[in-house]
Give the backbone structure.
Amino acid sequence: MLTLSSAELNTWIAALLWPLSRILGLIAASPLLGNSAVPTSTKISLGVLLAMIIAPTVPALPAAEPLSMAGLLILTQELLVGLAMGFSIRVVFAAVEMAGEISSLTMGLGFATFFDPLTKGRSSAISQFLALLATMMFLAVNAHLVLLAALAESFVSLPISAGPVSGAGFKALADWGGKIFSSGVQISLPIVAALLITNVALGILTRAAPQLNLFGIGFPITLGIGMLVIAMSLPYLATPLQNLLLEGIETSRKLPRSFADRTRPPVPVTPVALPRPAPPPR
């Protein structure tokens, strides 16, 4: 007859519950797996499956009952670590969406907005288009698989412990959030520059011929120039988008090391290598 003690049962529950909390945190915050279009049951099933695969490789767990105060603190801490890792990838998509917002406002398409189910807010048409383009790039370079590999590696660089995490991880996450503005402006810079030249040309034309209706011809011209520049720059967006995704995954892999105790010896991390996109046609 098989008999189980309460200590063994608590150990088995903790061995699955604590890794599951970090995994579910990453799934909830990641831009693709955490999309509201994905059913909640699918997210939980994927998290349980990943936890069953990763749990045997997790280092020794702290001796704490899952339902005790110490166990609940560990559960909350692991959830925060997973949310931080998923949010670091979400920053990449936020930068792409900001580039679309800047481009839309410059082109005069600020009124063309759609409901974004991910952010539960409004976003412009160009922003939605660039977000879909970034999602396809995310899948094309297998970044979702690399992200899951970084998640499994995080249990080695930041083992499950009853001790508090370091505040350096939150500072690193806040510093990484500034990438939204810098990368958003850099991606939208060709469109903004082209439309700036167009507006200067329209101003000179209106000054030379005051009888022209600037409001009548300005909007179609800026809209057409913006669409033309977007179409011309699409073949060249693969490299910056891939570099941005690579940097986001590297940040997600380094976050657990930032959360780890400073006195703990550093764990070597192998750099990520994503497949390079094909060069644009000449």
